[in-house]
């Protein structure tokens, strides 16, 4: 019986593939770490024409970074760079202040909500606190009268009733295909 | 003022600045130094540089802006004018405009934002100062004294932070710092320099002293806060570099750069922890240099170890040497801060002096061999604040160096003891020989 051909297998199987390394890997293998571990540059006089020899890995990295989609590095004159830096710092500062302001607003809102809840917790269904009741000579509040408003508030019934219909759009990951409908009126 | 056609939109920007410029002192970009540093209590220098003399720029293809001149340039030099006419006109004009008044709209808006912020910060600084004064004037009960001091300390820290924040967004400060002309008396430049040092040089130093085990060998730990650089004559030595023994024969210069305010006294010690001790089958310490009361401030950083006075030097410089057959010898340089004065406010210097004569008399730390830095630190209450390291190996000059230094043993060669392999580990046949 004739043995089946392995040609197809050889094409697709990683096990059968011949060991052809990529250009990058070959470049890296060709140039192992040759320089000694010192921070001083290699002697420039050795290679008279081209200066110190470039590391192959660096060449490869540069080659692969040079992609049409890679943004160009910013190369500015000194004054231009300083102006750029100034604008960048101002923008960062502005955003920092904006974030701080938003955060403090949120904190204030939360605090005032908490204060309102605390006030509700301390009054009975007449709107009187325990001290005021004493002053008025009403005596102790009965049973569950104290803090009744607070408990009702915590049930959060009907808080979504009055939400406008625009908010009811189903939340999606992407914007709608036809953009914003400016013509829409209620 | 008649403007050319290509430069008309620019002219609008320029005109408004020109009027202002008549009143303002002109500070060109290159000559100004630390213009906006009011936080540091020292009046900013207001000297102005005369504007450089105008050169005829009519033939420069980067600066011509009139069509007739452009044509002449093309005809005579064969070069096309560079970039747009508006840009060329601007380049020609901006030679004399100070950097801060360059007519770029976004740049000017950004400067406005930054200056607004700076004003806020200055106001905060003023308020903080007033608060501190008020707190200082308060009389508190003796049991609350500690709390008051703690509060004052934290207030001072926040004040320092504010001082840095006030100036950190200034492009001129950045420029001055990059030119290495920053005044180290000012907190912002100290801050920038510290950040720069910590970003690379300090990491290299830490790597060297931990890799070569200087830190547990000589002192248990060190957290460098001052940067050091070592120079033998004109030769700058990297941390941990192997130095030729003839080069290191003369005492080096040590640059100690602290990053916090004020003068202080340091003790400098150079210790070799790799001295072989054959009897012990181990290693000993040898002190190559020891000096106290070295006065350092952020602006006075250079120390010539050879030129210190009799009042400072405990052990003068001994040329570092290795011996034949030994691996490299590490020479660890440690900078220790001397204990703080209790009443630091009234004197300029904040550290106590060490009585060198007394140490010399006692004689415990005047012997080079077997010098233990840990014990010296403990007895003198010193705190290590900086470190440096270099190495030496036996080379062709070492014997001469040792002879000149009066050290015997330049001709000794150390050899490894040969260990006979156990009989069953010997090669077959060798035991029958």
UniProtKB/TrEMBL annotation, chain A:
Coiled-coil segments, which residues? Answer: none
Bias type Polar residues, positions: 31-45
Tell me the domain of life. Answer: Eukaryota
Its GO biological process annotations read: mitochondrial translation
Q: Where in the cell is it found?
A: Mitochondrion
GO terms for cellular component: mitochondrion; ribonucleoprotein complex; ribosome
Single annotated GO MF: structural constituent of ribosome
- Asked if Transit peptide is a keyword of the record, the answer is yes
Q: Which UniProt keywords apply?
A: Mitochondrion, Ribonucleoprotein, Ribosomal protein, Transit peptide
What Gene3D superfamilies does this protein's entry cite? 6.10.250.3440
Region labeled Disordered — which residues? 31-54
The record's similarity note reads: Belongs to the mitochondrion-specific ribosomal protein mL40 family.
Can you say what this protein is called?
Large ribosomal subunit protein mL40
UniProtKB/TrEMBL annotation, chain B:
Which key words tag this protein in UniProt?
Answer: Coiled coil, Mitochondrion
Note the InterPro entries from the entry: PEBP (IPR008914), PEBP-like_sf (IPR036610), PEBP_euk (IPR035810)
GO cellular component term, pick one = mitochondrion
Q: Which Pfam families match?
A: PBP
Highest rank taxon of the organism: Eukaryota
Q: Where are the transmembrane segments?
A: none
Location(s), subcellular: Mitochondrion
Annotated coiled-coil segments of the chain: 111-138
Region of interest called Disordered, as start-end residue ranges on this chain: 38-81
Which residue intervals are annotated with compositional bias (Polar residues) in the record? 38-48
What PANTHER family has UniProt attached to this entry? PHOSPHATIDYLETHANOLAMINE-BINDING PROTEIN (PTHR11362), PHOSPHATIDYLETHANOLAMINE-BINDING PROTEIN 4 (PTHR11362:SF82)
Give the protein's biological function: Component of the mitochondrial ribosome (mitoribosome), a dedicated translation machinery responsible for the synthesis of mitochondrial genome-encoded proteins, including at least some of the essential transmembrane subunits of the mitochondrial respiratory chain. The mitoribosomes are attached to the mitochondrial inner membrane and translation products are cotranslationally integrated into the membrane.
Q: Which family does it belong to?
A: Belongs to the phosphatidylethanolamine-binding protein family. Mitochondrion-specific ribosomal protein mL38 subfamily.
Protein name per the record: Large ribosomal subunit protein mL38
**What organism is the protein native to?**
Cladosporium halotolerans
């Amino acid at each position: 019986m004739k043995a089946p051909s392995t040609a197809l297998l050889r094409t697709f199987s990683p096990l059968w593939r011949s060991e052809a390394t990529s250009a990058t890997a070959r470049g890296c293998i060709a140039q192992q770490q040759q320089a000694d571990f010192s921070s001083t540059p290699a002697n420039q006089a050795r290679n008279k024409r081209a200066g110190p020899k470039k590391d192959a890995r660096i060449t490869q990295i540069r080659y692969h970074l040079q992609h049409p989609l890679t943004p160009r590095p910013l190369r500015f004159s000194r004054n231009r760079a300083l102006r750029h830096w100034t604008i960048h710092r101002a923008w960062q500062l502005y955003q920092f202040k904006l974030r701080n302001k938003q955060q403090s607003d949120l904190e204030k809102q939360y605090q005032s909500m908490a204060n309102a809840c605390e006030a509700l917790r301390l009054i009975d269904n007449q709107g009187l606190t325990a001290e005021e009741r004493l002053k008025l000579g009403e005596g102790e509040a009965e049973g569950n009268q104290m803090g009744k408003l607070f408990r009702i508030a915590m049930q959060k019934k009907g808080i979504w009733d009055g939400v406008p219909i625009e908010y009811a759009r189903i939340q999606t990951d992407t914007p709608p295909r036809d953009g914003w409908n400016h013509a829409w009126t209620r | 003022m008649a403007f050319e056609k290509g430069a008309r939109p620019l002219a609008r920007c320029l005109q408004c600045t020109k009027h202002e410029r008549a009143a303002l002192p002109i500070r060109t970009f290159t000559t100004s130094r630390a213009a906006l540093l009011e936080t540091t209590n020292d009046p900013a220098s207001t000297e102005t540089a005369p504007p450089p003399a105008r050169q005829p720029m009519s033939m420069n293809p980067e600066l011509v802006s009139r069509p007739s001149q452009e044509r002449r340039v093309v005809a005579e030099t064969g070069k096309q004018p560079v970039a747009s006419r508006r840009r060329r006109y601007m380049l020609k004009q901006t030679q004399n405009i100070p950097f801060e008044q360059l007519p770029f709209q976004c740049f000017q808006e950004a400067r406005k934002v930054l200056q607004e912020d700076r004003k806020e910060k200055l106001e905060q600084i003023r308020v903080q100062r007033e608060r501190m004064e008020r707190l200082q004037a308060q009389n508190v009960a003796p049991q609350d004294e500690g709390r008051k001091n703690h509060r004052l300390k934290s207030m001072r820290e926040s004040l320092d932070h504010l001082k840095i924040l006030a100036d950190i967004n200034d492009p001129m400060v950045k420029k001055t710092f990059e030119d290495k002309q920053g005044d180290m008396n000012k907190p912002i430049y100290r801050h920038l320099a510290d950040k720069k040092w910590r970003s690379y040089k300090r990491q290299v130093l830490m790597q060297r002293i931990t890799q070569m085990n200087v830190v547990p060998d000589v002192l248990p730990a060190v957290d460098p806060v001052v940067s050091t650089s070592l120079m033998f004559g004109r030769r700058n030595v990297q941390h941990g570099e192997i130095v030729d023994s003839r080069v290191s024969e003369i005492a080096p210069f040590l640059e100690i750069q602290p990053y916090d305010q004020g003068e202080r006294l340091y003790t400098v010690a150079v210790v070799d922890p790799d001295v072989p001790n054959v009897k012990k089958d181990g290693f000993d310490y040898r002190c190559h240099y020891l000096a106290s009361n070295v006065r350092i401030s952020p602006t006075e950083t250079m120390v010539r170890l050879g030129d210190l006075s009799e009042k400072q030097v405990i052990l003068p410089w001994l040329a570092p040497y290795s011996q034949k057959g030994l691996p490299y010898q590490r020479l660890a340089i440690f900078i220790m801060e001397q204990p703080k004065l209790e009443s630091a406010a009234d004197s300029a210097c904040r550290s106590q002096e060490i009585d060198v004569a007394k140490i010399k008399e006692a004689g415990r730390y005047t012997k080079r061999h077997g010098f233990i830095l840990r014990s010296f630190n403990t007895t003198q209450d010193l705190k290590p604040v900086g470190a440096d390291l270099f190495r030496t190996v036996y080379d062709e000059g070492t014997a001469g160096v040792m002879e000149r230094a009066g050290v015997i043993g330049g001709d000794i060669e150390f050899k490894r003891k040969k260990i006979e392999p156990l009989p069953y580990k010997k090669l077959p046949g060798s035991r029958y020989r």
